[in-house]
UniProtKB/TrEMBL annotation:
Organism of provenance: Musa troglodytarum (fe'i banana)
Compositional bias ranges of the Polar residues kind: 18-36
GO molecular function, one term: ATP citrate synthase activity
Pfam families xref list: Citrate_synt, Ligase_CoA
Lineage: Eukaryota, Viridiplantae, Streptophyta, Embryophyta, Tracheophyta
EC numbers on record: 2.3.3.8
Name used for this protein in its record: ATP citrate synthase
Length: 682
């Protein structure tokens, strides 16, 4: 029968080829079959109807919709990867992708093997390194969009968890551009895996896994973490192709065998770990058959394991002469006979069961049909070496010459950690540190702040002033925040916030619109008040000299004057602050000077009273000077930077947020100012 291969060209399929999948299903403790599959071309209606893997002398195989098959048509074509292969990577993992790109560079590829990343709910780019060059790899939120954007990427590497791996893999298999799907997750439900296998086989797709580390074509392409670190890849000579095709169930053991094969041969051409689950998407036989059709592969190394009947399809193929290259095989798990009961060995499919599933029975069966089977795993390396040397002597292998791989640039982070390089930092931070088990504010651990009952004022003292101020100081800060949190809806900041909120804008936009009105005329005079009061007081100027001097300069005295408060209607907030200071502060020198200035300005106008900006500014000077924790230079710097205005910004944000919520809760419509409140004039 002739079929059309997904890679192009006609390939011959064998309807009487031994079915690896059939033997897996029948040897499982469960009698479930793949949905839609029938055995021997007839539909099975009874789920309990299961055959042994070696039933009779005939070949077992399954068919889908009445069409018998035993392995992928695509598998018979041989090579599934090349130096031009590109993949889509599902569920972003930085390290496996970077390892793929480093392998690309090591092999001298011109194009990165990762064309795109699929991360549900995310779009944009991820920055990674391709050699010394930093590249941006597109990120897509949907599998369909990624496949449409990267039609040449025909491998789908699925790093999803076992909970979502089946659904995302099926989505990928349904895309016409995807040819190979590798499922890394372990523990994918067997019923889901069976459906994936059925779909893949009937649609000429290659499924590797589940529970696989992936695969590698030396010098061309690798899946995710296959073969481990760059150092291991270089040691195993995987940066250039050799002459050995290797397939195993175990991903961990595949790393060991890559090293072993590199020591005694010219290295591998391709290596695949099919995965340790009960139902692998592709089998040992599938890949050995591929290797048999790859001219560059001169011999095959197979590492099986006890449990299941996967290896028997390879036995049948060798028996029928379908494999004509040397096969060196070992089935691990011979120690299982030492146990009196069934034992699970790591993988879901690696469990001691019936005699046919034992490692001894499989090794014996392989040996009887011509595979080179050593007496123990320790002798496996020798068997590989002797077979390779024999092929070299016969002229069937011309050992590949070693080439020196390029040097992979070391990541800056790794180089710094190892002490090889030093690099300048770009940001300096002295107020907090989040590198330990818990954040620290000015060296004080978060747990200490909570356990000792620190308040907002204490946190401000740590993050703003980098020290723990006395409690009377931090309580004064908290009083300022409470007194300045809001001053009604009519002031400019609240008005702007209300108008913005009613325009349907979000919280941050509404808050910022109000905050942007804070300045010299609204709430932003605290720093200036402190600056001018301190300068005049320290110079010993009388209130008359200070006020008249400011008048000559054309500068209003900051902290003096109010639109609605007066001599007879004092600001209660100012009075509360003054009362607290008289009770708790060791000195109120600057506040007393501000009051003297107020006395003089009230002689000029009834509304030139000390306002809340002036009160906070003068009292903060007394706090800084009286606490004994700041020198003159530090006090001047605090005022110059704008600490005191920051206190008003922090406080008023509370009220502005409240006004935003209030307008949205009341569902107020868009604000439009009334005509009668506007003077239209020329």
């Amino acid at each position: 029968m002739v079929g059309r291969c997904a890679l192009g060209g006609h390939v011959i399929s064998h309807p009487h080829q031994p079915s690896t999948y059939a033997t897996q299903c029948s040897s499982s403790s469960s009698h479930d079959t793949v949905s839609g599959l029938t055995r021997g071309g007839r539909r099975r209606s009874n789920r309990s109807e299961a055959a042994s893997p070696m039933e009779g002398s005939g070949t077992n195989y399954y068919s889908f919709a009445g069409c018998p098959f035993s392995s992928f048509h695509i598998m018979a074509t041989g090579q599934i990867f090349s130096r031009n292969t590109q993949a889509l990577f599902y569920n972003y993992k930085q390290l496996p992708i970077q390892r793929m790109l480093d392998f690309d560079f090591l092999c001298g590829r011109e194009t990165p093997s990762v064309a795109g990343i699929i991360n549900t709910g995310s779009e944009g780019f991820q920055k990674l390194f391709f050699g010394q060059e930093e590249i941006a790899i597109p990120v897509h939120s949907m599998i369909e969009a990624a496949c449409a954007a990267h039609p040449t990427a025909d491998v789908f590497i699925n790093f999803a968890s076992f909970r979502s791996a089946a659904a995302s893999s099926m989505s990928a298999l349904m895309q016409p551009t995807i040819r190979v799907v590798a499922i890394i997750a372990e523990g994918v439900p067997e019923s889901d895996t069976k459906q994936l296998i059925a779909f893949a086989r009937t649609n000429n797709k290659v499924l590797i896994g589940p529970a696989t580390v992936g695969g590698i074509q030396a010098g061309a392409f690798k899946i995710g973490d296959t073969a481990g670190t760059i150092d291991n890849i270089i040691q195993c000579k995987l940066y250039r192709p050799g002459s050995v095709g290797f397939v195993s169930k175990s991903g961990g053991m595949s790393n060991e065998l890559y090293n072993t094969i590199a020591r005694v041969t010219d290295g591998i051409y391709e290596g695949i770990a099919i995965g340790g689950d009960v139902f692998p998407g592709s089998t040992l036989f599938d890949h050995v058959l591929r290797f048999n059709n790859i001219p560059q592969v001169k011999m095959m190394v197979v590492l099986g394991e006890l449990g299941g009947s996967n290896e028997y399809s390879l036995v049948e193929a060798l028996k029928e002469g379908k494999i004509h290259k040397p096969v060196i095989a070992w089935v691990s798990g011979t120690c299982a006979r030492l146990f009196k009961s069934e034992v699970q060995f790591g993988h879901a499919g690696a469990k001691s069961g019936g005699e046919l599933e034992s490692a001894q029975a499989k090794n014996q069966a392989l040996k009887e049909v011509g595979a080179v089977v050593p007496t123990s795993y320790e002798a496996f390396e020798t068997a590989i070496k002797e077979t390779f040397e024999k092929l070299v002597e016969e002229g069937k292998i011309a050992p590949v010459s070693d080439v020196k791989p390029p040097q992979i640039p070391e990541d800056l982070k790794s180089a710094i950690k190892s002490g090889k390089v030093r690099a300048p930092t770009h940001i300096i931070s002295t107020i907090s540190d989040d590198r330990g088990e818990e954040p620290c504010y000015a060296g004080v651990p978060m747990s200490t702040i909570i356990q000792h009952g620190y308040g907002v004022g204490d946190v401000i003292s740590l993050l703003w002033f980098k020290r723990s101020l006395p409690r009377y100081c931090t309580q004064f800060i908290e009083i300022c925040i409470m007194l300045c949190a809001d001053h009604g809806p009519c002031v400019s900041g609240a008005h702007n916030t209300i108008v913005t909120a009613r325009a349907g804008k979000d919280l941050v936009s509404s808050l910022v619109s109000g905050l942007l009105t804070i300045g010299p005329r609204f709430g932003g005079a605290i720093d200036d008040a402190a600056r001018y009061f301190k300068d005049a007081c320290d110079k010993g100027l009388t209130p008359y000299e200070f006020v008249e001097g400011m008048k000559k300069k054309g500068i209003r005295v900051p902290g003096i004057g109010h639109r609605i408060k007066s001599r007879d209607n004092r600001d209660k907030r100012v009075q509360l602050l003054q009362q607290y200071a008289h009770t708790h502060f060791p000195s109120v020198k600057y506040m007393e000077y501000a009051v003297q200035v107020e006395t003089y300005t009230l002689s000029k106008a009834n509304n030139l009273v000390l306002n809340v900006d002036g009160a906070i500014g003068s009292l903060f000077l007394d706090l800084l000077a009286g606490s004994g924790m700041f020198n003159k230079q530090e006090i001047d710097e605090i005022i110059e930077i704008g600490y005191l205005n920051g206190l008003f910004v922090l406080a008023r944000s509370i009220g502005l947020i409240g006004h935003t919520f209030d307008q949205k809760r009341l569902k107020q419509p868009l604000y439009r100012h009334p005509w009668e409140d506007v003077l239209y004039t020329k």
